[in-house]
Design brief:
The chain is an alpha+beta fold. The protein has 11 helices and 14 strands.
Length: 310
């Protein structure tokens, strides 16, 4: 819902996608903040909002690319239409209307439907249609029923029984995710739907209340490094000039201390190393993951894959 001060975040993110596709050239952050309503100009709040929106788009599979200049302030951003679009689907007006209804239903009230519809070509007037594929896994029917009726769901997940208040569902990078309160671990947890055992049992309705402030997209996208199977403590050696930016992103999860080589040691709990890779990408060589070795190797392999594909 838009406010008196500007568009909602969903509208702003859609505007960002359209802006990057329309320009057909790399554009700087300053141009983006100036041209797109909702960023409040080139302010610190606007810059932080853009960083969150950029990560959100990447998590949805939108290929936001960074073109580096002589220093970080010269960085520009683009979305290559050839990587984003597929040929026209040839939908009739009635088929397009049906698609809009279907996508709205799939979004489960999270606000993600408009973005999915944009990818699927649901808006009139486009010359070509992007595509997004979300798998329909057998577990979803029971999980969605638990979400709709506020039932506690019991299922196996990687060999362990879980008892979960299903607070919401959302999608990220081609997978469905279930977000809720794990009664066995007394903490919020996120589960990839295709890793849930087929035998999902649900209890009686109205067994819990979802917090008013809870938003599944926010849980998975804005703080994606928090959500996964098992959390590990990650140590990041950062140039002092980038520490404030890291702290602003990680918030209360982070601790900061000196590193022997003069850099600053930033420590944070991470349950999704892949999300950490995307988050740290724009920091270039001003940050280095130094521990644990498993996460360090994953980031190195991820960067090597990017270089090999370029």
């Amino acid at each position: 819902m838009a406010t008196a001060d500007g568009p909602s975040r969903n509208e702003r993110v859609l505007n960002l996608v359209a802006f990057l596709l329309d320009r057909r050239r790399p554009v700087t952050r300053a141009e983006i903040l100036h041209e797109i309503p909702g960023y409040a100009g080139d302010s610190e709040a606007g810059r932080r909002a853009f960083e969150r929106d950029k990560e959100m788009l990447r998590s949805m599979g939108v290929p936001v690319q960074v073109v580096l200049g002589t220093d970080a302030s010269d960085a520009a951003y683009t979305v290559d239409p050839d990587e984003y679009y597929l040929p026209e689907l040839g939908l009739t007006d009635d088929e397009t209307a049906a698609l809009r209804v279907a996508v709205s239903a799939v979004a489960l009230g999270t606000g993600a439907g408009e973005g999915a519809l944009l990818k699927l070509g649901g808006f009139a007037g486009g010359e070509s249609a992007p595509i997004a594929a979300l798998p329909l896994v057998p577990q979803l029917a029971a999980i969605f029923d638990a979400f709709r009726r506020r039932c506690v769901a019991t299922f196996g997940y990687r060999g362990t029984k879980r008892t979960v208040e299903v607070w919401g569902l959302t999608s990220r990078r081609g997978h469905w995710y279930v977000i809720g309160y794990d009664r066995d671990r007394l903490a919020n947890r996120t589960f990839r739907a295709d890793r849930i055992d087929d035998d999902v049992k649900i209890g009686p309705p109205d067994a819990f209340t979802v917090p008013d402030e809870f938003r599944p997209d926010d849980a998975v996208i804005e703080q994606a490094w928090r959500y996964g199977d098992d959390a590990v403590t990650v140590e990041i050696a950062a140039d002092p000039v980038r520490v404030d930016e890291l702290v602003a992103i990680f918030g209360t999860d982070v601790t900061v201390g000196p590193h022997p080589d003069g850099r600053t040691l930033v420590t944070v709990e991470v349950a999704n190393p892949a999300a950490l890779c995307s988050l740290l990408y724009d920091f270039d060589d001003t940050v280095e993951v130094i521990a644990p070795d498993t996460v360090r190797r994953e980031i190195i392999e991820w960067l090597q894959a990017i270089v090999a594909a370029s």
